[in-house]
Amino acid sequence: MIHIKLDADQALRGLHRTAQNLQQGKKLFGMLGETLRSIHKDRFEKEQASPDGEKWTPLSAKYQAKKRKNADKILIHDGYLKNLLRFQATNEGVTFGSDRKYARLHHFGSNKASGKGSGIPARPWLGVSKKNEDYLLAKTEHFLRNVIGNS
User: Fold this and answer.
1) What pLDDT, in 10s, does the model give residues 84-95?
2) Which of 75, 76, 113, 134 is the most exposed place for a label (fewest CB within 10 A)?
3) Predicted structure pTM score
4) With left for phi above 0 and alpha for psi between -120 and 50, is residue 109 left, alpha or beta?
5) Are 21 and 147 in contact (CB under 8 A)?
6) pLDDT tens, 24-48?
7) What DSSP string describes the chain?
8) What InterPro entries does the database record attribute to this sequence (predicted)?
9) CA gap 56, 101 in Å, rounded
């Protein structure tokens, strides 16, 4: 005869530890926020392309002639946009982006006829590609495996 002994107290303690560990949303979303920051910095420094992989519109000859810093880089002058990317992690999710006023202008472009900020082409920089999504999901899965494994 085979006997199986179930220890309900031990099982409940294990379930309770697992439930507590799974409530680490802020930790998970903080890690994802850091990953998003890294993905976007690479986009500025290496890819120079939208999340979909479309290369950004080149700088105008007039602007490139007067640009001294980072003359070969699009959307990088002093580096404020790429270096001041922000995220807010909570137990429910992560908000990611930039608080720079010109971030929206460069992302969506401007059809303004004249003056400061006129004629700037859209250079979408904010967002995630399919490859980025897969990477974020893999990091989430790894995080959850560790949480469940440590319960």
Assistant:
1) 999 999 988 999
2) 113
3) 0.80
4) left
5) yes
6) 788 999 999 999 999 999 999 999 9
7) -------HHHHHHHHHHHHHHHT-HHHHHHHHHHHHHHHHHHIIIII-B-TTSPBPPPPPHHHHHH--TTTT-SS-SSSHHHHTEEEEE-SS-EEEEE--HHHHHHHH-----SSTTTTPPP---SS--HHHHHHHHHHHHHHHHHHHHT-
8) Phage_virion_morphogenesis
9) 20
**Tokens at residue 139, please?**
């990091």
Boundaries of every domain in the chain: 26-149
The first and second tokens of residue 75, run together, are 């959307």
Q: Whose structure tokens read 């007067």? A: 66
* Structure-token match 């850091």, residue found: 34
